[in-house]
Amino acid sequence: MYLSRFLSIHALWVTVSSVMQPYPLVWGHYDVCKTQIYTEEGKVWDYMACQPESTDMTKYLKVKLDPPDITCGDPPETFCAMGNPYMCNNECDASTPELAHPPELMFDFEGRHPSTFWQSATWKEYPKPLQVNITLSWSKTIELTDNIVITFESGRPDQMILEKSLDYGRTWQPYQYYATDCLDAFHMDPKSVKDLSQHTVLEIICTEEYSTGYSTNSKIIHFEIKDRFAFFAGPRLRNMASLYGQLDTTKKLRDFFTVTDLRIRLLRPAVGEIFVDELHLARYFYAISDIKVRGRCKCNLHATVCVYDNSKLTCECEHNTTGPDCGKCKKNYQGRPWSPGSYLPIPKGTANTCIPSISSIGTPPKFNRIWPNISSLEVSNPKQVAPKLALSTVSSVQVANHKRANVCDNELLHCQNGGTCHNNVRCLCPAAYTGILCEKLRCEEAGSCGPDSGQGPPAHSKPALLLLSALLGAANPLVF
Ligand SMILES: *[C@@H]1O[C@H](CO)[C@@H](O)[C@H](O)[C@H]1NC(C)=O
Ligand SMILES: *[C@@H]1O[C@H](CO)[C@@H](O)[C@H](O)[C@H]1NC(C)=O
Ligand SMILES: *[C@@H]1O[C@H](CO)[C@@H](O)[C@H](O)[C@H]1NC(C)=O
């Protein structure tokens, strides 16, 4: 009886998830903020962590060039062909649409041939440096979810810096340096992302991987987001739970992938030879055909929808939060301090909703931060751990998204504070710690830290882990 129910659930799961397959870039199942469930008290809302889908962020940015008059064509000028630097009769003319190369062409639809591109003026003022800043602004915090990819139509620059801002362009930090010779250009040893590890993932490196001039075919520069995720989630990003766990507990890591603005600083065009050919300066310029930035609005796990209205991105906050990033509690919902949602426990996370202010309800409800209310889920047999979840109470979206996700992995860690990974589904924590990754002091969970700490774990945690492993064990692998 239990087996047949299990099989039918599983069959449905397979059907639904095969329908839902075309989602290679979505890195989560946090796509509903709440769902209705049945408890002994009847139908109630169950709140979950939620986030907007990852999408093409270039549709929502503003671009600014410095110096402002650096785009070619005003006045018209000739430049040399990319393929043949001695054929110098190509024309850029801003007043003729077919010969103009305005900045918008970095973000238009590519895939046609020949491609459209932005182009700078040529290096006619050599030896004065030819430098351009391309600033991309969202006026909103966004979380990057895939590599930043810049496709050059000219040779790739000899020197370039990618910078980021987290405060709407007030301050800037380097993100990555690019040069044909890192030591010469930036006094840095050349490195590639593959030389990094989990412990050095936040290091800012200079790479020579993308900076050869005209000679090679490749025209692409990457800022490698996925390779950095892979230090936590494994080579094919199968173990996203591990990444989520780490993002949840390490603010610095979360911030590393978060930006409000990006700046591409082009410092020296591709020369391709040791010396600059002063007789043919029209050979040297920058041209970019495409910039890809994928990400999502940062809504602190309190919204699945981010709207673009009036040239502005805003989270549609749930859980009674408000603000552009859902960064505070609504008025009259300040019964406890605001906190972001949590990815844990996988796969639903914790909503950390804002609750009505104390004055309006008397005493604040006792709140269980991480663990779901297990008694409302009726585990049928604690050993076999097949949750008796009535399917009708769970939306198909949610069912499809309960895919397999390992919680931990002894190679890639993630049990913290000396915890060890058990069967990839739970961390065995030292006595003083608890939480899915042993990330929390046990006394904190019990709200009794201080001189008399050392309380037992919350009664819920054991069945919750068993339930979790049942959900994970029955599901399909997370496909990327
Ligand atoms: C580009 O921006 C940097 C700061 O990020 C600034 O120091 C530099 O002068 C700017 N360059 C140009 C050409 O505007
Ligand atoms: C938020 O407040 C509204 C009433 O304004 C209420 O109906 C709703 O259930 C609340 N949501 C949460 C997540 O507490
Ligand atoms: C869990 O759910 C049961 C039944 O709905 C309820 O009586 C109990 O108070 C809930 N516990 C918590 C901590 O919310």
TrEMBL record:
- Residue ranges occupied by any EGF-like domain in the UniProt entry: 404-439
Disulfide topology:
C429-C438
**Signal peptide segment:** 1-28
PROSITE patterns in alphabetical order: EGF_1, EGF_3, LAMININ_NTER
Q: Which gene encodes it?
A: NTNG1
Record domain Laminin N-terminal: where:
46-296
* InterPro entries per the UniProt record, alphabetical: EGF, Laminin/Netrin_ECM, Laminin_N, LE_dom, LMN_ATRN_NET-like_EGF
Keyword field contains Disulfide bond = yes
Q: Which UniProt keywords apply?
A: Disulfide bond, EGF-like domain, Glycoprotein, Laminin EGF-like domain, Repeat, Signal
* Xref: Pfam families: EGF_LMN_ATRN, Laminin_N
Task: State the organism's lineage.
Answer: Eukaryota, Metazoa, Chordata, Craniata, Vertebrata
Glycoprotein as a keyword of this entry, yes or no, is yes
Q: What is the protein name given in its UniProt record?
A: Netrin G1
Q: Which GO terms describe its biological process?
A: animal organ morphogenesis; axonogenesis; tissue development
